[in-house]
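[SOLVED] Need 3D model of a four-part complex

Original post:
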Amino acid sequence: MVQKIYDNAPLALDGLLFDGMVIAAGGFGLCGIPETLIDAIVESGVTGITAISNNAGVDDFGLGKLLKTRQIRKMISSYVGENKEFERQYLSGELEIEFCPQGTLAERMRAGGAGIAGFYTRTGVGTMIAEGKETKLFNGETYVLETGLVADLAIVKAWKGDPYGNLIFRKSARNFNPMAATCGKVTVAEVETIVEPGAFDPDHVHSPGVFVQRLLLATHNEKRIEQRTIRQEAA
Amino acid sequence: MVQKIYDNAPLALDGLLFDGMVIAAGGFGLCGIPETLIDAIVESGVTGITAISNNAGVDDFGLGKLLKTRQIRKMISSYVGENKEFERQYLSGELEIEFCPQGTLAERMRAGGAGIAGFYTRTGVGTMIAEGKETKLFNGETYVLETGLVADLAIVKAWKGDPYGNLIFRKSARNFNPMAATCGKVTVAEVETIVEPGAFDPDHVHSPGVFVQRLLLATHNEKRIEQRTIRQEAA
Amino acid sequence: MPWTRDDMAALAAQELLDGFYVNLGIGIPTLVANHIAPGVDVTLQSENGMLGLGPFPTEADIDADIINAGKQTITELDRTSYVSSADSFGMIRGGHIQLSVLGAMEVAENGDLANWMVPGKMVKGPGGAMDLVAGVGRIIVLMDHVDKAGTAKFRKSCTLPLTGANVVDMIITNLAIFQRPDRRSPFFLKAIAPNVLPDEVRAKTEAHYLEMPA
Amino acid sequence: MPWTRDDMAALAAQELLDGFYVNLGIGIPTLVANHIAPGVDVTLQSENGMLGLGPFPTEADIDADIINAGKQTITELDRTSYVSSADSFGMIRGGHIQLSVLGAMEVAENGDLANWMVPGKMVKGPGGAMDLVAGVGRIIVLMDHVDKAGTAKFRKSCTLPLTGANVVDMIITNLAIFQRPDRRSPFFLKAIAPNVLPDEVRAKTEAHYLEMPA
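Solution:
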């Protein structure tokens, strides 16, 4: 069996990082983000990153950590609220941002991973998002052309992984992770648990091992909650 | 709860069939095909069907049954071998066929179901398949534009379904079924087993209930094997 | 007496029909879930990949891996399923979600919607709003009738960058409800809050609209 | 002495490197699986949505729901996973499969491949072949050197409708192996079957190719 399991995040990222690279990351808000790998990228000091990620984390968590250290040059995201440092860098022109509607972003990552160079969507037609992009009529309706995204490296977080790189995500922590896994030229996955070969039911695998080149046991699983909302227990 | 479960296939198809309609069907070869619903469509006598299906069944099984009765006017498929009646009708000009590379067909069904009007693929560039279709350069490579497919009705076969229409497929019987489910204006699913609400782990559902309007217990589960290949048991 | 936020949510909830799959936006639209009539079976979808949202959890049930698109902790139901973001927006873009309720900064009389950015201010991004208005069958906007400066939010045309062009089907404000039968038709005044006069609605609305049908 | 079909499959198998994900076409290419060297870990993919194909089943283990793209019954391994056809071709089209071995009717000296239709004959359709040659990193063709009429199958240009333009990287016939370092380069003669003379290969090949490197 080819050895995909690495002992820790710096080893799993060894040789993959370079200044000016494109990194795609899974996660929605702070849910399902590769915490361990983000910390290792902070430690590595690599700079000039273009980050493809739905969100930008918060000031001291998630991709916010890489913004704080100014390792990110550009974000391709759908929503970047909840991050003051982001706001400061953006308004001062230090940080570039390419806004992408959330569904279009997910589809662009999927397309890049699936060899689809571009696709036509109604999303954004007639808005700033479509400015400068090609449009085309299908059945009398206008669609805008969006392009596939490919990253030099994808970092994803899964619940369980096996030595073949098969991944299972947990609940809404799945989100952008499967698409990120497909769109990386190299994909590194951190998992909460590494299981034995054959432990997965083949019908339950969310992300097949073909997309994962390196795997490690996640050491950071804080899973910070952004909006802790509760109801009162019924008496 | 909205009642999605129907007592039998004729009831599940009631009001959905009309001459000249487009029907998308799941299945690869004879694996994972909606046997019960196909029989009911044969019984209904509806004609002039355009069938979107990877294959055309064999002479007396699968979509072959609808070919035998000449209820199908046109097939959109990737491969139609193994069917003599098909061959006869095709060569005599009674039957129209639109060949589509298998991956392009799967993606066209997915696109139609996901509101993607068209997408660019390298598949078929420089071949007859691309003739008359638009092409476009991305990063110096030529891609051909393929369009999304939408059907008036989709018929799918699943292993298990719950009353909400959530579906779980079994092994390689999954194949085209999830995409077919998304590309029908109405989707009817036959399942080998109906489970109680809540019986599914939410992370195991392959096709969420939003895509399935009607559900029935399959009464035909012959699952004929096309190529029975075995190895000798080790002594 | 203008409608409260809960009144507005309750009015929107009446538009949720049995069997509908519905996406509720962040803010007041989230309240709509509290007002769904008994016996009306609605499945709530959240664009981060959850279909079949339950109520907020109790303190004991909080699970960081179960959140809605507002990043709020939430619970499962017996119908719940999870999908990837790509598949979730496949549902949305593909027209499989019948209804979405969203907030707005401005709506134009032609149905244009603006709810994602104010030039000169920090732009947070469109999130999933552009996908929702482009893909969901019916769009209901919940918003105050006028902004803090007293300016009409239902306008001849939007002054802010659009989220979608000609995408709104119904507007519920604290003063009135506007609706249109399809996206080629103008809006008409469908209802007015108790003790609010038609003249007040007219005065506080820049958009052209048809009067209430008799 | 020309190579047998098993010899050809064994030669192709040498191109399967440790860690590769590989798609084997129907017919002789299927035999390649029998010749993978011990210690070389290869994962076979089948375009109907199975990743990690095992051997054929015993009579007792036959399962109609486990088939490969040739519709043959097959078994699982401890690494197996299933995906939909759309996701399966995502792997293929997206370049995640390193190698595919296919049959051919004709290959042209510029790497064009024809293996799906003969005009005037019943056309069965391209199946997944066009997707494979367009998406997989490296394409190896296994075919007889000449057809039943004795006509060269490695040609100046294809006479049959193409499956893909400039997609073949290596050709293994019963007489010889041709290869090229990249898709801008011409093919060179890499090997000849035992006791087959270079002149025979030359005589039975219409395509231009470079001689064997010293």
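Edit: The longest strand of chain B covers residues 151-161.
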